[in-house]
Amino acid sequence: MPLSTKHLLGIAELSPADIELILNTARSFREIFSRPIKKVPTLRGRTVINLFFEPSTRTRSSFEIAAKRLSADTINFNVSSSSVVKGESLIDTGKNLQSMNPDIIVVRHHAAGAPQLLAKHCRNCAIVNAGDGMHEHPTQALLDALTIQDHKGRFEGLKVAIIGDIAHSRVARSDCLLLVKMGAQVVVCAPQTLIPLDFASYGVSVTNDIDVALDGADVVIMLRTQRERQREVFYPSVKEYFAFYGLNKRRLAMAKKDAIVMHPGPINRGIEIDPEIADCRQSVILEQVQNGVATRMAILYLLLGGRQTPAEEIIA
């Protein structure tokens, strides 16, 4: 079966079957990475526009690589040299781009709800949310899920600790929505000032004690302290933040011996995570980056009408 939705705007609209479809399709595409020529003709003749209003390394690059490996034509929209600087609205920008007949517009925007607004006004192409304000980052959650499933083989019954700047993290929201939906036990941990009051409504446990969060955890997801989004002072100092909420060797030992350490990036070494832990045997951070390409390949493919097929058919 194809995806049940035309757009990918958030995790909430995806069913567990949709999520499994995306993850299984991503695994099929990963075989391409080991080929001498990492390209297939699957989306030849299709056009993908990357519309990024915020800086990005991993997300933008992986969407571009994903589209090119599927042989789609890729346009990277440069906001700083566009009519946006002259005052053009997001809706008008979207309508103008849609008039050029792209198949997918991938959008990252500083305002929550921007992808939903584009989807409302650009009905002739698919919209993919690559991060909107402090709302959601669904493709990051999907690649995180792929990484977890690769290592743990399941979601049901896993304890996943998400630690850091919960309040400003769209990754935290998407991860919580997906992992709870798939049966994991999720605990979020941060200083009280960095946990929204409504976060318990996501079906997760909430604590301010990192030792409680890490105790018996199968998966540890550390989050960046997003100082560029913080308009107030949420903790006394970076040094004190690391002392109470940084992941180091002693704290990691509280998790299960086979626990994996994840981070959506970019990493602030020595603030949320000790450099030794970021590069340790249990760290799967670079695997997340690689899985980001495969996951985004699967999303582009499925949104453009692809169906789940055996690997040899997809990559023939």
Explain how this protein is built:
The two termini are 20 Å apart. It is globular, with a radius of gyration of 19 Å. The longest helix is centred in the last third of the chain and has 19 residues, at 285-303. 45% of the residues are buried. Helix 1 crosses helix 5 (138-152), helix 1 (16-30) crosses helix 11 (285-303) and helix 5 (138-152) crosses helix 11. Residues 308-313 have low confidence and may be disordered. It contains 12 helices and 9 strands. It has helices spanning 16-30, 58-69, 90-98, 114-121, 138-152, 170-181, 210-214, 238-245, 249-252, 275-278, 285-303, 311-314, and strands at 47-52, 73-78, 104-109, 126-132, 159-163, 185-189, 205-207, 219-222, 260-262. A 5-stranded parallel sheet has the order 7-6-5-8-9. Strands 2-1-3-4 form a 4-stranded parallel sheet, with helices on both faces. It folds into 2 domains: 16-137 and 289-314, Aspartate/ornithine carbamoyltransferase (Rossmann fold, 3-Layer(aba) Sandwich); 138-284, Rossmann fold (3-Layer(aba) Sandwich), CATH 3.40.50.1370. It is α/β, with parallel strands linked by helices.
